[in-house]
Structures are given as C-alpha cells and as structure tokens.
Amino acid sequence: MEKTKYLIVGNGPAGSSAAEVIRSRDPSGSIMIVDREGERLYSKLLLHKFIIGEVPEQRLYLHKENWLRDHKIILETDGIDSITAGVVKLKSGREVKFEKILFSSGAAARKLGLEGEDLEGVYDFRNLADARGVESGLGTAQNISIVGGGLISTDLIDALVGTGKKINLILRDKEFLWGKVNEKAGRYLEQILLDAGVIIFKENEVSKVSGNTGKIEKIKLLSGEEIASDMLLIAVGIVSNFDYLAGSQIEKNKGILVDEYLQTSEDWTWAAGDVCEHPVQGFNEKIVSGNWLYALESGKIAGENMAGEHKQCWSLPVSVKSLRGVSIGYYGDVLAESETVDAEKEDVFYRFFVKDSKLCSASIVGSQKNSAVIRSAIGKEFSTL
C-alpha cells in the first residue's frame, strides 16, 4: 500500500495553495494530490478571455510545468472511490494510506437535467476542457444561447458580445442579476445588454435541447419558443463535489461542514474552497461561498493548520466583474433571509444585504472606490452610506 503524510483531494486554488504552504512549513513531509482533471493550477477567472483569444492558453497557468516536481508534490490523475480513517481507495483500485487529508475538490456546474445536455456544443464552462471546446467551436458558431444570470454568465456575455455572434440570454428571473444588485442598476445593466444586441428571454427556462448527428441545433423554452443554437452555455450555479464521501461519517450538508479552523467533524480531515460549508464571522450560520479568492485563502489556512498551526479562517469572498466597461463588485456572503437596502451615490449603485441588523454582503455597480470601507463593515451593525 502506498503512503503519504498529506493527501489533498483536488488541485484547484484551495488544494494547490494548501500544498504550497504545507511544503513551506514541512520541507520533507510527503504530499500527494489526487485530481480528476489532472491539470496544474490555472485561472478560471480568465477562461472567458481565453475563448475569444485575448489570453493564450499558456497564460492561464499559474504554476510552471515543473512546479509540482520542484516542490516534491505527486499529482495523481485519478478519482476517489471511498475513504476510511487513514486510507483512501482510488477509482483505479489503488489504496493510499495517509496521516492528514484535505478535501478541496471544488464544485461542479449545476445541470439543467435535460435530455440533450450531452450533445456537442453544450458546455457548463466550469473547467479548462469546456473552455477549449467553446474556443474551438466559436469559429463556426453563429447562434449562442446562454442560460443563467449570475457571475459566470456575466463573464461570458462580456466576452462574446464583441464577437459578432447572435447572443440569446435565458433568465429564470425577471431581470438580469435579479436579487444580486440594486434594482435600478439591474435595469441599467439590462439596457447595456440590449444595446449590445443581446436578446433576453425573461422568466423562462430551457425545456428541451435537440440536435442532429450528435451536435446541438436548437433549444426550446417553456414558453414554447424555439431558438436556433449552435452552442449552449449553461451557467446556473454550482454543486459542491463530495460524492466520494457517501456513506462516511464526515458531516455534510450543501458542502462538507467545517469549523472556523476548516476542520471537519473528524480530527484528521480538513476542507477548503467551494466544497466546504463554513461559518460566517458575526453570524450563527454556515454557507458555501463558491468564490475563487475564498478558495485560495481558505486553502492556505487549511494547509497551515494541517502543518501544525491553529488559525481561524474568516476570509471574505470577493468578486469583481466587468460588463461592457461597467464594474460589478460582490463582497461577502448573501445569507438566507437577509433583507436588502438599495442606495445610490454619485452614479454608483449599492445593494446591501442585512441580517440581524448586521451587514453580511454588498454589491456595487459602478466605481469600486468605496469597496474597502464596505468590506470592513461586513459583520458589523449596518448603517447606510
């Protein structure tokens, strides 16, 4: 049976940052990363730039080709079949004995659950393989349909509106970024999309995906409309990846439950990034953040704690997007049953999310110059601008 001191499940931002900090604190301890994708760390934040040729593939990678070897880290392209205390069984049938394990397997794109989702030209846009498929298909695709009105679809629309393709946007909600931004800002952003030629189908959903010879040709909406589609990009949220823990005693909910030290219910395990459901500072609840920056920072702290530290993780999720030159910033976690307060100042639109009289999250459309002030106010008693 193979042995390793540290076993890391997933080589995304959380797993990779954990491995790096473990190596800096434990120069000789063996580290193995098990990852189904088998890629070295790359930036998912730039994939929308890659598909239109603004960023070459080589610039996506955040580590050099020999980084793993230089840090004496073994990367196994494999999946996890099952885990017991101290032993993991891989999909290939091999067994690996470990002392400490980090779950950093990230999240998968939420599926529509429709027949035809496996047709060529249908992508979740969650990984580099999908981005390569989109990039290679853009040359011939003329009609592109995007499902979803969130962060990933914002990136996709911003990249694709300048390509000359016909863009259809299917929204389940009544407006673009509904509930996420100031109501007035939502209408402003929607007009930007319309002015750019995007065709928007509101309060609608895809009911059927169909094609010929294994390739998508059209989609049908619940409203009955049929839309010619050479490509369908699905961006309707994420689901944490922890199916390999089925039957284990490790506590789970929407993600793997962790405490403020990122430790799970078992003292030999930690979790970080999109797979963990973590406490929110100042609030009595846990949430899955699904955020690149949180994944990086939580992975680093988890690695420190696996190497002997005892640090709390109160990292704040932050995302800043751009839509046709307009900045859209998201700060903190939107908690269940939080109330919203909208404000506008100097052509900047704010939406504050408040729970138990405290600010838990905010979005800003326009200049982000006040973001530092807002970030410092999260978790504290709320008072508007």
Overall, the morphology is globular
Indicate how many domains the architecture comprises.
3
Class derived from helix and strand content: alpha/beta
Beta strand count? 25
* Oligomer designation: single chain
| Percentage of residues in helical conformation | 10-25%
CATH architecture of the largest domain: 3-Layer(bba) Sandwich
Average pLDDT reading: 96
**Unreliable segments (pLDDT under 50, ≥5 consecutive)?**
none
Question: What gap, in angstroms, lies between the N and C termini?
Answer: 60 Å
List key phrases describing it:
385 residues, FAD/NAD(P)-binding domain, 3 domains, seven-stranded mixed sheet, five-stranded parallel sheet
What does this entry look like structurally?
The protein is of the alpha/beta class and 385 residues long. The chain folds into three domains: 2-108 and 239-306, FAD/NAD(P)-binding domain, CATH 3.50.50.60; 111-234, FAD/NAD(P)-binding domain (3-Layer(bba) Sandwich), CATH 3.50.50.60; 334-377. It is 21% helix and 32% strand. It has helices spanning 13-25, 47-50, 57-60, 67-70, 128-137, 151-160, 183-195, 292-306, 371-377, and strands at residues 2-9, 31-35, 73-77, 80-84, 87-90, 95-103, 107-109, 122-123, 143-147, 166-170, 199-201, 206-212, 215-221, 226-228, 231-234, 238-240, 256-257, 269-271, 276-279, 286-287, 318-323, 326-332, 339-345, 348-355, 358-365. The model has no long low-confidence stretch (mean pLDDT 96).
